[in-house]
Write a structure and sequence with these properties.
Blueprint lengths: L2 E6 L3 H13 L5 E7 L10 H5 L9 H4 L5 E5 L1 E6 L4 E6 L2 E6 L2 E4 L3 E3 L7 H4 E2 L4 H12 L6 E5 L3 H13 L4 E5 L10 H14 L2 E3 L4 E4 L3 E4 L4 E3 L2 E4 L3 E3 L16 E2 L12 E3 L4 E2 L12 H20 L12 E6 L3 E7 L5 E8 H19 L28
Parallel strand pairs: 1-2, 1-7, 2-3, 7-19, 9-16, 10-11, 10-16, 11-12, 18-20
Antiparallel strand pairs: 4-5, 5-6, 8-17, 13-14, 14-15, 21-22, 22-23
Length: 398
């Protein structure tokens, strides 16, 4: 009987993992099923571009994985039973179950309202394609002089504010942040960010806590109101809630706790990658939710599964950071170089060259997903180890 591998989620991490497993394992020994709610691969790092009216090329998953041995299942995951080793799904034909021997959990994250009143009803999000399209429709209705307020001063908020301001210079764009603008950046990076905000006419409201969102304004902890015909909420992400409803060991925020091979510390037949996983990077620092973390986690998890099933050597590659790539509209960018544990160093690349650098990185990540069988030599090894690891966490031996 073939070893059944089910991958949940076809974002960057899930798609990378499924393709890498298909290259590593012999088709006669495994079945690989990739489950995703949407039929297309979504370039999540470009949602701010989609929101301002730029067109993104459709990337059908069935076409991407045609001929790879990966079976694409378009369905919504509604539950995971880690004791019975089944996944509950719903698709156009109704409800069903998928049994697995190895599960790769890559359902990622979604926007988080943080319980702030009015956010769910009045704010827009950029964590999903449907959210970006709704924001796109709303922005198209705005007339000159109306206010767009982006709440959240992280990477997503900065990219959203600059993209909107560049595409719609007739609007009054503002960004609200709890700290200083770009406070995680180096002095050079902070200075350049302020320059770009000034050129684009973006108002930065710093050291502000938002306490409520209404249809045309936001309220702050110090009693002020800030105009907002459109509020874009980018204050962080929350993981998919399914894992927290299982017997898996998770953090308070619902991330699955994994070891350095991306394997669940409580259920050895489950692997978690990307935003859904709580993994340690350099200096025992938890990896942040990002594409920069997710793709290496996908490689590590897929190679670990293949090694355990074929009796190969387990990878223990340290997961680290090199830089943060930030687009500031289509013409300018900021590449902030960082330490292995993601702390900014003085060096930063700015301007048009940085914008081109960021575009190369985005295209490279997407190309890797779209070409799952290209690149490293295919080494489809036969499954030789026990495909059902013991709950004690004992390693399969060669």
């Amino acid at each position: 009987m073939s070893h059944r591998i089910v991958v949940l989620g076809a974002g960057y991490t899930g798609a990378f993992a499924a393709g890498r497993l298909a290259r590593r394992l012999h088709r006669a020994d495994v079945t690989i099923t990739l489950v995703n709610a949407e039929p297309d691969f979504v370039e999540r790092v470009r949602m701010h571009q989609l929101a301002v009216g730029q067109e993104l090329k459709p990337r059908p998953l069935t076409g991407m994985f045609a001929g790879t041995g990966v079976d694409v299942r378009i369905a919504r995951v509604t539950g995971v039973d880690v004791d019975r080793r089944t996944v509950a799904v719903t698709d156009q034909h109704g409800a069903g179950e998928l049994p697995y021997d190895t599960l790769v959990y890559a359902l990622g994250s979604r926007w988080s309202t943080h319980g702030v009143p009015g956010v769910a009803e009045h704010a827009h999000e950029l964590a999903s394609r449907p959210g970006a399209l709704r924001l796109r429709e709303r922005l198209a209705t705005l007339t000159a002089g109306q206010a767009v307020t982006v709440v959240g001063g992280g990477l997503t908020g900065v990219e959203a504010a600059t993209e909107i301001a560049e595409a719609r210079p007739d609007l009054k764009v503002a960004l609200v942040t709890r700290g200083d603008l770009g406070d995680w950046l180096s002095a050079k990076g902070r200075g350049y960010l302020r320059e770009v905000f000034g050129r684009l006419g973006i108002t930065a409201h710093e050291h502000i806590d938002v306490t409520g969102v209404e249809a045309d304004r936001i309220s702050t902890a110090d009693g002020r109101t800030i105009p907002a015909a459109v509020t874009v909420w980018t204050t962080g992400f929350a993981v998919h809630p399914l894992a927290k409803a299982t017997a898996l060991r998770v953090t308070d925020t619902g991330q699955i706790v994994v070891d350095d091979t991306m394997r669940s510390v409580s259920h050895p037949e489950v692997y978690a990658i990307g935003d859904a996983a709580y993994a340690m990077g350099a200096n025992d620092t938890p990896l942040r939710m990002s594409c920069a973390s997710g793709v290496p986690m996908a490689w590590q998890g897929a190679d670990s599964i293949a090694a355990r099933l074929t009796g190969g050597k387990l990878p223990h590659v340290p997961l680290r950071y090199y830089n943060q790539c930030i687009s500031l509209g289509r013409r300018e960018g900021l590449i902030q170089y960082v330490t292995a544990d993601d702390r900014s160093v003085p060096t930063a690349l700015t301007g048009r060259l940085a914008a081109r650098y960021k575009e190369v990185v985005c295209k490279g990540a997407t190309w890797g997903v779209l070409n799952p069988m290209f690149g490293m030599p295919a080494r489809r090894r036969r499954v030789t180890a026990d495909p059902t690891p013991a709950r004690s966490g004992a390693e399969a031996t060669a």
